[in-house]
Amino acid sequence: MGRTFAIGVAAVLALTACSNSETTSSSAGGTGLEKTTLVVGTIPVPDSAPLQVAIDRGFFKDEGLEVKPEVVAGGAVGVQKLLGGSIDLTLGAYIGTFLAQDKGAGKFKYVADSYGAAPGAFVIMVKKDSPIKTVADLKGKKIAVNTFQSVMQLTAEVQMKVAGVAATPDQFVEKPFPDMPAALENGQVDAAAMVEPFITVESKAGGRIITDEMTGPTEDLPVAGWFTTEDTANKYPKTMAAFQRALGKAQELVANDRKIVEETLPKYTKIDAATAAVISLGSYPTSLSETRLQRVIDLMKEYGYLKTDLDAKSMILPPPAS
Q1: What is the pTM of this model?
Q2: CA 255 – CA 49 distance, rounded (Å)
Q3: How far apart are CA 223 and CA 218, in angstroms?
Q4: Which protein family is it in (predicted)?
Q5: pLDDT by residue (tens digit) across 246-284?
C-alpha cells in the first residue's frame, strides 16, 4: 500500500486549518457522543476492509455514528488532512506515523489496529528470466519500493541483512505499486517489493518470488492501523470509544471469515471478485498491542529510521471498557 510517508515540520506549518469535520460537534444530540459524524481517511487496499464492513453492516450506525469515508492518496496526505482538520481519523502505516511523530510533525494516537503481516502478502519479486535467485543476489541491485523508508523498504533491508548482505539507500527506487510489474519487465528495476493484487499480476506474467519479506525478524509484523491526532482523541473520548467498538466488531468478522473480505474488496477497491478470491491477504488483528507496535519502533531504530526514542504505549488510545 502507499501506506508510509515522511512529512517534514515545514509541510505541517504550511497547512491551513479547514474543518468541515468539526461542524458536526454541536449536533451530537442525545447520543452522549461529543460528535456524531466522523470523516475517515481510507485507502482502497485490503487493509481498509474492516471499515467498509462496519459501514455496510451498520455497526457505526448502531453506535450513533455516521462515518464518511474519504479516499486519501496515502499516509502523508492522511496526516496533512488530519492536522488541517478536514478529516477526523485515517488509515496509516505504523512506520509512516512513527516517522511523522519522530520528525515533530504532530502527536498521534492509534485508535485501532487494521492489518498485519501474513505469509505471501508482502514479497520481493523478479521477472521470470532474472538471474537473481536468492536474497543475497540483491546486493547492489535496484529494488522498487512504493515509498522510501516504508514498511516495504525496511523489511527488504532486514531480509538482506539476514542473508548476509548490506542494503544501501541508493539501491531503492520509488515506484507506485501499479507501476512495478512494468518496471520489472522493462528493466528499470531488478526486483520489486510488492503487495497484492500486484503479486498475483506479476505471478501470472511468470514473475518469481525471491523472498517473503515477513519472515524471521519481521514475522507477523504490524503493518497499518487507524489513527487520529492526540488533540482529537482527547477532545472526543466518547466518540472515539464508539468508533473503536463498531470497528472492533467488523475486525472480528474479517479476522475469522476470509469470504467477508473477498465480498467486500470489490466494493471499494479495483480488485475484482475473481482476484479477491485468490490473492494472499495479510492478517486482521483484533486488538492493539503495545508490545507489537514497540517491535516496529525498535526495528526502525535499529535500521536508522528514527532519531528519537518513541514509546508505543503513549501512541495507543486504550480500548473502551467492555
Answers
A1: 0.88
A2: 10
A3: 10
A4: Belongs to the bacterial solute-binding protein SsuA/TauA family.
A5: 999 999 999 999 999 999 999 999 999 999 999 999 999
Query: Distance between CA atoms of 156 and 36, rounded to whole angstroms?
Result: 42
Which whole-number Å values give the CA distances from 265 to 89, 239, 271, 318, in the listed order?
21, 27, 6, 29
Domains in the chain, start-ordered, CATH in brackets?
9-117+221-315 (3.40.190.10), 122-218 (3.40.190.10)
Strand 37-42 vs strand 66-71: parallel, antiparallel, or unpaired? parallel
For residues 183 and 144, the answer to whether their CB atoms sit within 8 Å is yes
Judge contact between 171 and 142, C-beta under 8 A. Answer: yes
Give the C-alpha separation, 68 to 243, whole Å: 12
Asked if 181 contacts 187 with a C-beta cutoff of 8 angstroms, the reply is: no
State how far Cα 88 lies from the chain centre: 17
CA–centroid distance for 235 within its chain: 25
What is the predicted pLDDT for the residue at 179? 96
- Distance between CA 91 and CA 78 in Å, rounded? 7
Q: Considering the chain, what is the average pLDDT of its residues?
A: 92
Please tell me what DSSP assigns to residue 318: P
Give the helix ranges, DSSP H, for 103-179. Answer: 151-162
Q: What is the CA radius of gyration of the chain?
A: 19
| Single-letter code of the amino acid located at 143 | I
